[in-house]
Amino acid sequence: MPNALSYRDRAILQNALSDTAQFATVRGRQAIVRNALAGYPLSGEIDKALRWVDWEGSSFVVADDLLRLLEGHEAAPGLAALALIAQAIEPMAGVAHRERIADLRRRMGWGAVDPASLPAESWRDQRPAAEVAQERIIGENTLKPMYYLRRALVAADAVVRVDLSGQPMGTGFLVAPDIMMTNHHVIGNEEQARCARAVFFLEVPDPENNGELTRKEALASAALEKSLRYTNKQLDVSLLRLENSPRLQRYFPLRPAEMKQNDRVVIIQHPGGYPKQISLQNNLVAHADARIVQYYTSTKAGSSGSPVLDDNFAVIAIHHGWVHNQAWDSTGQVRVTGPKEIEDSQYRNEGTSVIALLEDLEKTAPDLLSELTVLPG
Fold first, then answer.
1. What distances in angstroms separate CA 182 from CA 161, 222, 370, one per listed residue?
2. Residue 117 DSSP code
3. Which residue has better confidence, 47 or 353?
4. What angle, 0 to 180 degrees and rounded to 10, lies between the N-to-C axes of helices 95-108 and 81-89?
5. pTM tops 0.70, yes or no
6. Which of 201, 317, 329, 356 has the greatest count of CB atoms below 10 A from its CB?
């Protein structure tokens, strides 16, 4: 049976469901199921299965019935009904239950799924006002402290547009006060480095503040020392020394950081060579290992060499391009639920992991590595 649970995993889900406060009433039970499952292509088949549920029973018994009847059903091709139930109740559950559900979802491969669109006439919760809570976390907890935005603004100053002979070619970022990182395919040799410029603070002004677009430049040094300090075609990384670089509040020190599927990554970039932009939505990690990180965070031509950042705005990879899922072409059997999922199944953006870069620097350029801040203070 697809999506089958072990006895232990069924007990985890059953206990969490029956202990959820909203599950204490018949209307609450029905609302959980309706909000989690309605609107998907196969929700009609699920409704047929749920006709056998005695909603008036005890919480534990009703939870058992629900899991037994839903097991093996899919709300959409490749999307287990139980995965949606687990996702719906995780934020409602107590801390102990929440940790167990999160572990269960990881083991079962039940990643985050956006709720299906419901018809306008059916989305509203019909419970009496006395049973409706004033607020709640819906799906993933997206609340963040205000310093998150301040950190983004400070971090953005260390991201630059890379110009070659006056033409925008990509993006770079400072990993030390005068050392910039970008892609090998943006700057791959000394000749290119000599005609490169790092353009700082190129941003669209806030129209409400009547601000002016500011622009400062730092030239890649070409006189007494090599400006191209390191380049690696396989990793698609280059490190350059800048002269006359403005002093900034912070940089992006290189530290090894392990990422995992469904982590989130932000990219500050110069897409299309235009003023600086930030991508922080639809930004799940699709795959990560010690060499590459793949993600759905949006980029464009000109974003090559951008820092891929975690939730603390620490660099975990350097973006270098997009990749195509060749299995889609060869099998045509990647199971999806709509146009957005079709696109995500075919394409991912990708960057070189900082882990791989640090390992290579340690072997091939230890003197340069010693100039970079690689260890926590």
1. 10, 17, 19
2. P
3. 353
4. 150
5. no
6. 317
